[in-house]
Amino acid sequence: MFIAPDGNPASVSYSSTMDMAIIREVFSEIVSAAEVLGRTDDSIIGKVREAQPRLLPTKVARDGSIMEWVCK
Asked: Which one, of 29, 12, 28, lies nearest residue 69 by Cα?
């Protein structure tokens, strides 16, 4: 996000497939690292686990291509 010239928050994209894929991977690595380090009870790990199922799924178009943008 950034602040547009009119002073309002703006963004180039909203929940793009690439964004969701990166976040999904980072969350997965955080949980894996916590398991290796024996830190699965940390509050941040609980928050990550709660957020994981709320991430938007990757959508596939009729032609088999990945849909990159959220359709509202």
From this structure: 12
